[in-house]
Amino acid sequence: MPAKPQVASRRLLADMPKYLRDSRQPLASLLFIAPPLVLYEAGVLYWAETASRNGADVWLRDCLDQIGVAPPYVLPLLTALGLLAWHFVARASWRWTPGILCSMWVECLALAAALVMIAEVQGAVVQSITGELRPVISLQLPRSRYDSVPEPIPLPPPTSPEWNVRVGWADRHGLATPPVTWGHAPVNLPPLVEEALEADLVESVATTPASSLLVAYLGAGIYEETLFRLLCLPLLWAVGWGLGLSRGWSLALAAVATSCLFSAAHHWGPHGEPFSWYCFGFRTAAGLCFAAIFIFRGFGIAAGTHALYDILVVFI
Length: 316
Fold this sequence. Notes:
Elements: H1 5-23, H2 26-46, H3 55-66, H4 74-89, H5 99-130, H6 161-172, E1 181-182, E2 185-186, H7 199-207, H8 210-242, H9 247-265, H10 277-297, H11 299-315
Antiparallel strand pairs: 1-2
Helix pairs in contact: 2-4, 2-8, 2-11, 3-8, 5-11, 6-7, 8-9, 8-11, 9-10, 10-11
């Protein structure tokens, strides 16, 4: 006989502290990110012609390459070993239940949706003040596949699902895309909104299959959080603490510093976006949100929220 709603709600509330504790453990984070990490690595190899590695992924691999560690499996292996070492040093329990992973995805989706809503509100407020269109901003670092604007490529017929993702998104947001063709006829897209252009996001949507895009954003969430939250934030916290600051102040300053670095990285290098205070400010605020999630909810929730945010921005 099914439990009464009141009993079920009490059980849920009773289990909540256990979920909050267990889901933030490094082992849970590793088990949570393992499937999307494998999917990302396999997808980059499978869609070699259209997929590209995330900027944070490329930077981390370049660092490994500088010390003579070049095999492609090393970075995901080091990420896994780092989480296992963290779990061991923390002396946390090695017991876990599969159901916790489903709950973590639900939590990530709720947090990502909230971040999208914040971005929508911010864009609407700025547009009402300035009269300029401000589309929701991607949090994916510039990708490194192209040295220039891609050549025109054939697109599927407008009736296909891929058309809706690859061109319809830019159309709905009033953005232009790199040169594209449908068969042998050029596609006329809306005029470019200069200051609101997310060049890399639009490039990806216009020239990349939907499945390849999905894989790319999974990698963005994992490796950007690995670089800025899993590596840089504890390092800067330790530096601040070593300089005599309290733990609280060290952690707060580390969160602010890594959030600014995360935002600035989107404008770095030949593939970076033109600088915009609007974009920089939003990404810094988003970085602070991810830092808070990392500190209070663990690496897995931060990476999942980041990945799902980018996916929601593109596919909805």
